[in-house]
Task: inverse folding
């Protein structure tokens, strides 16, 4: 099999971080693995059973992977953004006494009051932020795995993947938190269209004209510290396990026989979608709490009480029980499938172009 899924190098956020000279990423040194499904070759050629593929990671190749991954991540989040908006709208009503809308009614409500643009509030800053986030995650995974290869006594590549995922989630959270703070504020605002000002079903909230206006409002009324640190703790709590699950899920799929069966075009779409579900389903309750933490506003000098994650968790449980922690899950899973499938597919296409 030629170019046996070169997108494996990305491994959701780290294009070549787990592929090293003289060793394939998924080859556990402590046991006899079937290299037919473990070895692959980035620039094409046969895959042998006797020895792993040699991959020469030059600085140019690494930069190409970073570029392709960043663009893929930005496009993926842009394409799937309406699903993210639907999920956020559902999340912000969790734990309140307001009537919760299902997905179809939520779509109709947004269309009626805000039009098509309502599905894309905050998309520009999120796409830009996602490109930066992916670059950070790529670099962290690359450096972490290189260090573990050279200095650690860990033999299992899966364990190295877990450690790399932990650090990628931890460090990138410092970028994710402010980007998603602006995104959540944009998506959750109650902006009525000119013709629907008589709609009183939604409580008033600050209306931001665009992402820059939202950022300025946060800095002016809440301060720089809120922009960068409001919700950072709960963001880390979500990101760390998410990326561990994501790396492992994608890694197991990429080393399976399905990689041969699906081929280089279908595999990134299907594996990326599946890995997206693997990272979101277990951590989704944390994401709801995070959304409700970051949607809270308190202007400078105000004595308004801000609920912490523990208090928000208790409030959600009191008002809706365990099921309330999965409000908005359906559009989030649709978003995860589209976003991560497209991210891997775009990455593969760009890497194929850059290798020519």
Result:
């Amino acid at each position: 099999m030629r170019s046996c899924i070169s997108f494996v190098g990305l491994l959701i956020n780290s294009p070549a971080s787990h592929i090293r000279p003289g060793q394939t990423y998924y080859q556990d040194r402590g046991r006899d693995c079937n290299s037919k499904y473990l070895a692959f070759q980035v620039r094409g050629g046969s895959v042998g059973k006797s020895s792993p593929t040699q991959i020469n990671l030059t600085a140019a190749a690494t930069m190409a992977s970073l570029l392709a991954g960043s663009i893929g991540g930005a496009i993926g989040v842009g394409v799937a953004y309406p699903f993210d908006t639907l999920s956020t709208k559902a999340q912000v009503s969790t734990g309140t006494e307001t009537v919760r809308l299902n997905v179809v009614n939520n779509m109709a409500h947004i269309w009626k009051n805000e039009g098509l643009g309502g599905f894309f509030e905050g998309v520009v800053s999120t796409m830009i932020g996602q490109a930066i986030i992916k670059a950070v995650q790529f670099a962290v995974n690359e450096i972490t795995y290189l260090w573990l290869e050279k200095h650690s006594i860990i033999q299992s590549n899966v364990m190295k993947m877990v450690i790399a995922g932990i650090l990628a989630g931890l460090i990138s959270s410092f970028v994710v938190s402010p980007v998603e703070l602006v995104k959540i504020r944009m998506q959750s605002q109650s902006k009525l269209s000119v013709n629907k000002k008589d709609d009183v079903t939604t409580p008033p909230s600050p209306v931001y004209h665009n992402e820059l206006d939202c950022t300025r409002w946060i800095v002016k009324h809440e301060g720089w510290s809120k922009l960068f640190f409001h919700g950072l703790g709960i963001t880390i709590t979500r990101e760390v396990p998410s990326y561990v699950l994501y790396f492992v899920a994608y890694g197991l799929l990429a080393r399976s026989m399905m990689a041969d069966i699906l081929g280089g075009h279908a595999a990134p779409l299907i594996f990326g979608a599946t890995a997206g579900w693997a990272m979101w389903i277990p951590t989704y309750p944390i994401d709801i709490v995070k959304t409700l933490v970051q949607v809270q506003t308190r202007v400078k000098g105000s004595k308004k009480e801000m609920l912490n994650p523990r208090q928000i968790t208790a409030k959600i449980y009191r008002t809706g029980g365990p099921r309330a922690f999965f409000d908005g899950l359906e559009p989030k899973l649709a978003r995860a499938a589209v976003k991560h499938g497209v991210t891997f597919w775009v990455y593969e296409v760009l890497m194929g172009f850059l290798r020519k």
User: Anything to note?
Assistant: The first helix runs from residue 59 to 79. The chain has one domain: 6-354. Confidence is low (pLDDT under 50) at residues 1-58, 192-204.
